[in-house]
Hints:
- It is a single chain.
- The protein is α/β, with parallel strands linked by helices.
- The protein has a single domain, classed as Alkaline Phosphatase, subunit A.
- It is built from 13 helices and 19 strands.
- An 8-stranded mixed β-sheet has the order 5-4-7-1-9-13-2-14, sandwiched between helices. A 4-stranded antiparallel β-sheet has the order 16-17-18-19, covered by helices on one side.
- It is globular and about 65 Å long.
- The two termini are about 40 Å apart.
Amino acid sequence: MPSDRQNVLFISSDQQHWNTLGCLNPEIQTPSLDRLAAEGTLYNRAYCPNPTCTPTRSSIITGQYPSQHGAYSLGTQLSPTAHTVGDDFREAGYRTALIGKAHFQQNKQSEEYPSLEATPLLQDLDFWRSYDKPFYGFETYELARNHADEGLVGQHYAIWMEEKGFKDWRECFREPGGTNKAQHHTWNIPEEFHYSTWIAERSCALLEQYAEKGENFFLWPSFFDPHPPYLVPQPWDTMYEPDSLTVPSVVEGEHDANPPHFQMTQMPNPDFSAYRTTDYTLHGFHSHLHDRDKLAKDIAIYYGMTSLMDKYIGQIVSKLDELGLAENTLLVYTSDHGHFFGQHGLTAKGAFHYDDVIRVPFIARQPGRVPAGKRSDALQSLVDMAPSFLSACDLDVPYSMSGVDQSRVWYGEEEKARDWVLVENRHEPDTIHLKTCVDDRYKITAYYNQDYGELFDLQEDPNELENLWDRRDCAHLKQEMLLRLISADWGSEPLYMPRVSGA
């Protein structure tokens, strides 16, 4: 195989707010990501296609929107037969690997094991030692499911811990499957057994293998942090002093013109039963009232989790460089979606399409090809990842992919590839079903079967405090943006079958 072909190293975090990079925010330290930004291009306006894990991660590998690939919400499944970017890379002779979080699959295994992501199967380590079925285009995959000490731990991560001699790993995790019930902010797992350590070690080993054999690769180290619960091992738990950090908060009256579910989050005991049509969890539909001092401590840990992850991202990047692979490898870093830590009075995530939760950090780097030290406002969408990776490697992009090719933008050959981005969110199909369109200046969000919505001028109101939806003097703007939303929705449709005849 020719060694001068392009490789792709795609590194992702989980639920990372777009501004939690040291180069953007002096309150946090991320030297490895800052180095990537200095050596590549930092994109200021990158968006996810859905502000939850499964839909966006499925969009990343299929190049389709959640409404197209079918994994439209948490708890849904990306079809195991879905065509993915890994399939295209493998067909072209590339090695493909995913290390860390997947969260695509909920498929039924048997009456005893309803899902690959359910206990007790997660902790059947003999099962995982021998499991070798196809996995969404990845020939190599080493998986875990938990965030911090969640008791869903198992799979390849638990195997690695045992191989490293850490036989009592269950003591560091909560039930089910674990034994620890009370950890707050300080995670009692030694850093050497943390999942970021595992992801970096295994990713570096694969890079060494690929370099030794002269193999081309598409490698995805998929980190779990800084997704809550807010928990990090020593010494990262004391890296940031809560009293020194900015704690975002709601602005009085900002929700007065917003849809009802925004206002209800600021009540002590809101009744969201009218939004419920299933028995499943409604993410974000609860009271978001919080104690400021506790939130400050949570933010300090969230930053600590990000800085710990940054250390191990740095190890992967350094290994790539040491092996002489950097010049032939397109490296992209991003997160699957954002996070609220007090902005607009909100915490975590939900059907509130502020930039805090739909905008993500985004860096592209390739020495000699991606402009270094540049910051760009070109709109990016994570649905563009699959077609852009393929195009960067001079591989054909399947007609089934809806995303646009961003590779020429990343390489500085074009100013932009998009005039808009589209964000979907269908959590409860009949009640929590919304779509957002963002262009160079404005953002509009419309709700299925509702007459309310949101309209923001991101240039004049970057903090999204004044909803213009019902403003009479903005009626024409709302009409224009609703038409843009409709056009964006139509424009997202993939051309599965190209026209081959005039008949």
